[in-house]
Specification:
Rna Polymerase Sigma Factor, Chain: A; binds magnesium ion; 2 domains; 367 residues; 16 helices; binds nicotinamide-adenine-dinucleotide; four-stranded mixed sheet; single chain; alpha/beta
Length: 367
């Protein structure tokens, strides 16, 4: 099987390379793309004998990622790019009837309704790699969606679980980047500290599984061993457990409907000892609610939420705003968002508008 890995130098990209290494030649890589780390990209290309590579920060071809994503040679695209930048190549891949092993969540958050329609129209397929959605996808095998009462996604609660807003006032970048369970790229790690990651995943679940939001639920599960639970109409629940290692989800997505032997070490349940579940602390972590509201509002509201979040998280990482200002900036940007219909052009326009508006909000905060 031949694949393309877009975003091969990141956390998901490199976990995908490990799954490929273990496949003993079953999975072959046709092409690799990354944003700016030329040295790492060429190291990966030479290890896997890949001749087609794209470094997006340097290429003069604006369609370069779309070309890799639609290459007739490949069956599957692993979408490991972070942020809204994944949207165009995801659209191209689905239009070309490819299977997209989709780790990126921002494309589904902004454009989920249109992406699932495109996949259906052109025979493309989205296989969720985000661990919670991959877990639900696994637990749903052999069941029809009509038998589902609720889909439950779990989250560890991040490094600040149990803290109040006043305690969060002065948290540092290093503290926010110190996730207790998962090792991930910086943007999603900050999203996990604000809990925006769960908000984005809630929207993502809406489109991956096509269920209305009253059937979606988030639970905090600090041990990060249960990733998703399907609650059926008869009261039964099927949960998916694995170590917090993205290779479990990536491997399932690439081998589906088969399984890769030994993809990850199975859990030692005796050692794990306890599995706890709590309600989300909406009061101290307002980002979840902002995301749920944006989904309810519909149209381009999730796009505005996502763009404001990307902008605010970057400003936090650049030491321009405090941790608590991230949610404030998103809320303020969402408040002034124009109502627009949902089509691809409006999504790109709303994304650009929200990035600029959020920057203005950040600047006005500092003066
Ligand atoms: P990362 O920052 O470690 O890596 C991002 C990759 O995207 C890099 O290869 C980078 O070169 C590339 N990239 C960045 N900006 C780009 C641009 N403008 N154009 C093209 N390529 C660009 O991020 P990550 O943690 O691997 O996350 C990737 C995606 O997967 C995110 O959307 C994240 O939410 C999602 N995800 C990650 C994890 C995880 O465990 N890391 C889990 C679930 C979902
Ligand atoms: Mg996740």
């Amino acid at each position: 099987m031949k694949i393309s890995i877009l975003g091969c130098t990141g956390s998901i990209g490199e976990s995908t390379l490990e799954v490929v290494r273990k496949s003993k030649g079953f999975i072959k890589i046709a092409s690799l793309a990354a944003h700016s780390n030329a040295e790492k990209l060429s190291r990966h290309a030479s290890e896997f004998g890949v001749s087609k590579t794209v470094l997006t920060s340097q290429t003069k071809n604006p369609e370069a990622l779309e070309e890799l994503a639609t290459d007739p040679e490949i069956k599957t695209v692993v979408m490991a790019i972070v942020g809204f930048a994944a949207l165009k190549p995801t659209i191209a891949a689905l239009k070309a009837g490819k299977t997209v092993a989709l780790a990126n969540k921002e494309a589904l958050v902004t454009c989920g309704e249109l992406l699932t329609a495109l996949a259906e129209k052109h025979g493309g397929k989205i296989i969720p790699v985000d661990s919670e959605h991959n877990a639900l996808f696994q637990a749903l095998q052999g069941h029809s969606i009509e038998q589902v009462d609720k889909l439950i996604i779990t989250g560890s609660g991040g490094p600040f679980r149990g803290k109040t807003r006043s305690e969060l006032q002065s948290v540092t970048i290093a503290q926010a980047l110190n996730h207790p369970k998962w090792k991930m790229g910086p943007k999603i790690t900050i999203d996990s500290a604000t809990l925006m990651n769960k908000g984005l995943e809630y929207i993502e679940a809406r489109w991956v599984f096509g269920l209305p939001d009253d059937k979606l639920k988030i639970l905090i599960h600090p041990q990060s061993l249960v990733h998703g639970i399907v609650q059926f109409i008869d009261g039964s629940m099927l949960a998916h457990l694995s170590p917090p290692d993205m290779k479990a989800a990536i491997s399932y997505a690439l081998y589906y409907p088969q399984r890769q032997p030994g993809a990850v070490e199975p859990l030692d349940l005796v050692k794990a000892q306890k599995l706890e579940f709590f309600e989300v602390d909406y009061e101290n972590f307002p980002c979840v609610n902002l995301a749920q509201k944006a989904l309810k509002k519909g149209g381009v509201a999730p796009t505005v939420l996502n763009a404001a979040n990307e902008t605010a998280v970057q400003a936090f990482l650049d030491e321009k705003i405090s941790f608590l200002s991230i949610s404030d900036m998103i809320e303020k940007t969402l408040e002034s968002a124009p109502r627009q219909n949902l089509d691809i052009q409006s999504i790109f326009a709303a994304d650009a508008w929200a990035r600029q508006k959020c920057q203005e909000n950040i600047l006005s905060l500092r003066h």
